[in-house]
Protein 1
Amino acid sequence: RSRLRQKARIQERHMPGRIRTQKGWIKRYKENEDLEFALLQRVNCLERIRRLQNDKQPESSPRHTPGPSDPKRQISLAEEHYFRCQRASKALEYDKPPGPLTDEFDFLRHHRNSDEQTLEWEEDKIACALLGGCCGRRCRCCERPLRCYLMPEGGKRKGMVGIYGHCTAECGCCMRNRGFYRPDPRLKALDPELASKIAHYYECQYVGED
C-alpha cells in the first residue's frame, strides 16, 4: 500500500490530470455506496414497522390496497432503488480509470479484517464517529452487517458475506440519539404518517423532509 501511495505522489507531480480522474471516480463510487447504505438502513427500519403492524393487526382483518403509508410498499420501492444503485456500481467498475489511487481503493475494498469488515470500512470509522455516527458510541451498530448474501467460493461451496456500512440519516440508532428523524433527501420521500411511525419507533421526533 505504501508503494501505491508513492506511485500516486509521483503521478501527481507529473500527470496531475490522471490523479484528478481517479479521485473523481472514487468520489462517485463512494457517493453511490453511501446511498446504498442509506437504502439498506431505511429498509431495515421499515421492516421493523411492518413487523410491528403485523403483530398488532389480527389475522381476520380485511386486506387493504397498499398506499403511500404502507411499509411493505415502501420496502419494495427502496429495494428497487437499491437494485439501481447496484447496477450503477457495476457500471462504475467497468469505467474505472487505471492508476495507483484506484489500485489502493481496490485493495481497501477487497481485503477484510478478522471480523469480515473491509479495510475501506475500517478507514471510514473515524469519519463516522466525527459526524455523530455509531462508531462514536458503544452500540457497535456499524459492526453488524446491514445485509448478508452468499458468495460462491469454488465448486459447490458458498460463504456468507456481510455488507457493512456506516451511518446515514436513515440509521435508527442515530435517530434515537439525535432525537429527530429527517429522511435522507436522496431517497424517495416518505409519507409523513409512515415517517412519523419510524420516528415514534425510535423514540424521536419527525421533523419533515428537506
Protein 2
Amino acid sequence: MIIAVTGARGAGATFVAANLAGASLSPVTLLDMDVSKPCCADFIRAEKIASEPVFVPVPRIDAALCDSCGECVAACYYKALRPFRGAPQVFPALCHSGGACRRACPTGAITLAARLIGAVETGVSGNIFLVSGKMSDHEHMGRILEKSIRKFAEPGGLTIMDCPPDAFPNPLECDVMLWVAEPSPRGIYELSRSLLKAREKRLPFGVVVNRSGAGDGRIERLCRKARVPVFLSIPDSPGISAAISENRLLVDDLPRLRLSFRQMLLSAKNQARRPSRLFLMGPSVHEGDIAALAS
C-alpha cells in the first residue's frame, strides 16, 4: 500500500494521491481516509456504485428496569453516562461503544441501539476504484469510518491511501509512505518532524516536493542528509496552480507530468519490494542535524 501524507491541509497530499492513481495503467484502489473533509472525489469524478451507512452501538436504558445503582456510570471510562433523576442520562457523542455499561448493569436495563455516524461511498472512474467516507454532522467517531474504508484495500493489488493531515500510517500496512512537502517554513518544519517519526516507526519513506523552486533548497538538502529519496518535484507554475484550483488531474492535461507520476509509481513499487533498502536513517543523522537543517 502506498500512503500519501502531509503535515497541513492544502499542501497537496490529495492532489498527489489522485494523480498517482490517475497515472496508473493497472487497476488501482484509492482510499480517501480524510472522513472529516474528503476531497479525492473532487479530482476523481467517479460514478457512484454504493453508499453504505455506518452505525455504532450506543446504550439505551430501560427506566422500568433501572434501579439507579450507578454501576454503569462508574464503568464508563469516557463519562458518556451521568447520574440523573431516575435512570442515568446517556450522552451519545461521548460514547465509544465499548459496552462496559451494559456488562456492569446488574438488572439488565441496558441494551444497545444503533446510531448513524456516517457513510462509506464507493465509485469507479476508468481503472480507479474510489472509496471515501463522510461523517455525519457533529460526529467525532472518524476512526470507525476509517476502519470501514480500510476493508476495501486490495490485498496483492495496488492500493493508494490519502491520509488526513499529520496522520502517520500503521507500519504493518504501509509499503511506502509519501510525504508531500512544500518549501515554506511550516512545510520544512513538518517534514523534519515527520522524518523523526518515520525513523522511530521504521517506516519506508519518500518525499514529493510540491511547488518546487519556490524555496531555497532546504527540503532537498534535508532529504540528502537523511538519505531520503525525493520521488518527484512538482514545479511552481501558474498552469499547475490553476489545474489544482480547478480540481483537474495533471496527468490528464500534461503528458510530461503523467510520465513523471508513472515513474514515481514505479520507484515506490520497487522500493517496497526491497525491504533491505527501505528508508532507515543512518547513525550519523541525529535530531540535532535535522533541527539545524529545518531552521
